[in-house]
Amino acid sequence: MEIKLIEQDFNKIDTEVLIIGVPEHPENTPGWDDFVASYNSHLPEWLKSGDVKTTYKQVVKMPTFNDSGFKRVLFIGLGAKNKLTEERLRTAFSTIGKEISIMKASSIAIWPTPFTNEKITNEDVAFLAGEGIGLGMYKFASYKTDSNDRDISLETVTFLSDSNQDELKVAFEVGSLHADAVNEARTLVNMPPNMLTATEMASYARRLAETYDFEIEVLGKKEMEEQGMGAILAVNKGSVEEPQLIVLKYAATDKWEDIVGLVGKGITYDTGGYSLKPRDGMVGMKGDMGGAAAVLGAMQIIGETRPEKNVIAVIASTDNMVSGDAFKPDDVITSLSGKTIEVLNTDAEGRLVLADAVTYAKQSGADYLIDVATLTGGVIVALGMDKTGALTNDEAFFEEFMHAATETGEFVWRLPLTESDKKRLRKSEVADLNNSPGRDGHMIFGGGFVGEFVGDTPWIHLDIAGTSDASSEHDLGPKGATGVMVRTLATVIERMASTDINSK
Ligand code: BES
Ligand code: ZN
Ligand code: ZN
After folding, report:
1. Which of 105, 110, 333, 500 has its CA 20 to 30 A from that of 279?
2. How many CB atoms lie within 10 A of CB 322?
3. Of the residues 286, 343, 344, 347, which should be mutated to test ligand 1's pocket, given the most ligand atoms within 8 Å of the CB?
């Protein structure tokens, strides 16, 4: 994509679509009169009549009638200027992205000034435009054989700005590489489970490692057996697909120390195993690797922006199937940590694979841990479909994480993890832990189980069962995978590269 900067002169643009933000009282925007003069003197009337709207997110598309260098103008209402926030702008730009897709435009020009206020600079606008437009334009290529829907991508983006601000170009680029990573994660989640097997996910990670010069290690069944990863092996037992523990290392410093571990649940299909899911509850379980996708997406951003922080990504991938060999309720298994687990429910498989993955991350030197997983239906009952649930054992680390989540606009809400919850996890007559203490408040038991393997390492658990998939079109994209947590994970790493966390 080419990103151009030109001075704020509407006669010098050469683009298919000029994007004009319309706040309340647009005439107060410096340069508005020049725009009206070069576009159409009727514009003030159209604003009065409501044909061009100032209402937030309302889009109006108009052709140009003179021989300007822009063929069409896309007006987007912004509402009251003083109410504009980064979050609202990201959404507005995503709306623009959706429109650009429909218009099949490959060149656009953006005049940043109307989008700014005392808090939001031209540079912020450029970043949010890159991010929002990229997210809004996303489409999953279907497997329909009769479709000739052609994919479009943006080839040229022109910014109109008086100062020669090269920062605008960089900001837009960073925004769009954030969106690209989210979109890659979305595609992984949207892929059918017969195509995205654990082995395929490992191949994807190998390509990522090659592009960004990460160290990569992939453990298959044999290596897992050698190491004693009894938990992920148990989940894989009923499958004909090889399990994969995918490990990526991004080394920012000469010494491999002060390392953040990102751990993802990569269940490529969850039938529930012998604790079989009802048929309606099974559909959609191709998305049970949303945590793995979030980690891979975050690694893509990290590979691009190269923050000063060492990161290890560990993804535990397998499907959860039934067969004569499959693990069963009542089985007792031994995890990599040495802790034994009584299996009460084979559908509580995510926590099992995460137990081994978290242990492996710790053994590889992780000083901080974040695990991300489509772990429980319980989080949906507790928080709905639009909030990620969290648990933590470290206030300072969580606070830092929440700053990142606020920056990206991804809503996260923490639930408690008490001593009595832990007691219930440890209740078993035959093993150290049980994998399913009950249905009441079971989001806490899912994440809390993973917490039994982190020891004193500062840790955050993110349950994205509700947020990883959208049942209908939403602010930042279409129905289907959302790519949630990709941006927040990358942002927390970027923040940690520049701040010292005062962990307990
Ligand atoms: N993959 C599911 C959780 C899930 C549910 C993800 C809905 C996305 C949407 C997980 O493995 C699971 O089955 N959890 C069980 C745990 C229970 C058996 C303790 C659940 O939440 O019902
Ligand atoms: Zn399950
Ligand atoms: Zn699952």
Report:
1. 333
2. 17
3. 347
